[in-house]
């Protein structure tokens, strides 16, 4: 599933619609580009080549799985097909409830153009289309002003702060942002909460 969304952007900077394209075996180089120190600052720093290879394998497997567990994507500028970053959603248990989580990385040359917000809206639509979980959460560091702004602009509700480990062993104080994806049909009726 590809989705195209026009970003909201600063009036003095041109912006183009973005597409989210399912992650594939050929996307490892983009993962290396997104491993830049300035992009990984709030996530414990850049990963090793071995860690990136493992992450790429997880992304590829998740995107091949069609059971609703989630999906990873390349963020692509619609006009010229240039890669601008990564985004995805995946299942997790949060406070006793099964939800989706999302996360993204936008390459430095594309930041400040509304690309992350547009991609987040597109990934929310993809998660909603799965009709599996009621909520999509994002957990940016409380210190990551840009990612917290993306959550706000994409329509997420701030639920409070929480303590997470990401990557494992790296404690992080995060904001818990939640987006209501709408009612979910279940075998026993409609899940509304």
Can you describe this structure in just a few lines?
Keywords: Acyltransferase, Transferase. Helices cover 26% and strands 35% of the residues.
3D structure, described in words:
The protein is an alpha+beta fold. The protein contains five helices and ten strands. The protein has helices at 28-33, 37-40, 49-64, 115-130, 145-153; strands spanning 3-5, 18-22, 70-77, 83-94, 97-106, 135-138, 157-165, 171-180, 184-186, 189-191. It has an eight-stranded mixed sheet with strand order 1-2-3-4-5-6-8-7, with helices on both faces. A two-stranded antiparallel ribbon has the order 9-10. The longest helix has 16 residues, at 49-64. The chain is globular. It starts with a strand and ends with a strand. Residues 1-15 and 189-193 have low confidence and may be disordered.
Features:
Aminopeptidase; protein-N-terminal-alanine acetyltransferase activity; Acyl_CoA_acyltransferase; two-stranded antiparallel sheet; 193 residues; 35% strand; alpha+beta; 10 strands; transferase; N-acetyltransferase; 8-stranded mixed beta sheet; globular; single chain; disordered C terminus
Describe the secondary-structure layout.
Elements: E1 3-5, E2 18-22, H1 28-33, H2 37-40, H3 49-64, E3 70-77, E4 83-94, E5 97-106, H4 115-130, E6 135-138, H5 145-153, E7 157-165, E8 171-180, E9 184-186, E10 189-191
Parallel strand pairs: 5-6
Antiparallel strand pairs: 1-2, 2-3, 3-4, 4-5, 6-8, 7-8, 9-10
Protein name: RimJ/RimL family protein N-acetyltransferase
Family: Belongs to the acetyltransferase family. RimJ subfamily.
Keywords: Acyltransferase, Transferase
């Amino acid at each position: 599933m590809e989705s195209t969304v026009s970003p909201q952007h600063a009036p003095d900077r041109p912006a183009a619609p973005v597409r989210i394209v399912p992650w594939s075996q050929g996307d490892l180089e983009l993962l290396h580009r997104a491993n830049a120190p300035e992009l990984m600052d709030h996530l414990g720093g850049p990963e090793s080549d071995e860690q990136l290879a493992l992450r790429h394998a997880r992304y590829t497997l998740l995107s091949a799985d069609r059971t609703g567990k989630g999906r990873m994507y390349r963020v692509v500028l619609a006009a010229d097909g240039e890669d601008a970053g990564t985004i995805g959603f995946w299942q997790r248990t949060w406070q006793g409830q099964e939800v989706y989580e999302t996360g993204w990385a936008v390459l430095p040359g594309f930041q400040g153009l509304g690309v992350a917000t547009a991609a987040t809206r597109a990934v929310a639509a993809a998660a909603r289309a799965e009709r599996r979980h009621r909520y999509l959460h994002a957990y940016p560091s409380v210190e990551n002003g840009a990612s917290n702004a993306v959550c706000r602009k994409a329509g997420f509700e701030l639920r409070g702060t929480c303590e997470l480990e990401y990557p494992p062993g790296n404690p992080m104080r995060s904001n818990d942002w939640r987006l209501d994806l709408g009612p979910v049909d279940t075998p026993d009726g409609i899940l509304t909460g």
